[in-house]
Design goal:
Blueprint (H helix, E strand, L loop, with lengths): L4 E5 L5 E5 L4 E2 L24 E4 L6 H9 L4 E5 L6 E6 L16 E4 L3 E7 L2 E4 L2 E3 L2 H8 L1
Antiparallel strand pairs: 1-2, 1-8, 3-4, 4-7, 5-6, 6-7, 8-9, 9-10
Length: about 140
């Protein structure tokens, strides 16, 4: 059973959508989860600053923004605080650094959204491991 992982705006903490309802993708288009998120996505092994979404399975608020822009290029802003959380580009069709795949057209900026993957008693935020608050309180006692 898949656990819903909220994807929040980092500025106002509004839930933008849930993963896996709208799965986050790597630069190669594979679904990101707690086990795969730390793997190097390309042969060059560079850490990518973006999450990607499948253009056929995006939240309705993103679909509205894309349709308003005529399926070309644009920026994605949080519907509540209007902070920029990503972009979309259906025109360029860029390739990943290893040149094996075309980059998915809808991008979310990792530094602008919070994504919490759960595994056991630990939470993983984007690419940073965060200790459970219970473990912190026990250690300080």
């Amino acid at each position: 059973m898949a656990v819903n992982v909220p994807v929040n705006c980092k500025k106002c903490r509004k839930i933008l959508f849930s993963h896996p309802d709208h799965p986050l993708l790597s630069i190669h288009g594979s679904i990101v989860n707690s086990e795969s998120k730390n793997k190097k996505p390309c042969l060059e092994g560079q850490q990518q600053p973006l999450w990607y979404l499948d253009s056929e399975n995006v939240p309705s608020w993103i679909t509205s923004v894309i349709e308003e822009a005529g399926w070309t290029k644009g920026k994605l802003h949080c519907p509540v605080c209007h902070c920029r959380v990503g972009t979309f580009d259906f025109v360029s069709g860029g390739h990943c650094p290893c040149q094996l795949c075309v980059i998915p057209p809808v991008h979310l900026i990792k530094s602008k959204v919070d994504v919490f993957f759960h595994r056991g008693e630990l939470q993983f935020e984007a690419n940073v491991q965060v200790e459970d608050t219970l473990n912190l309180s026990k250690a300080s006692s």
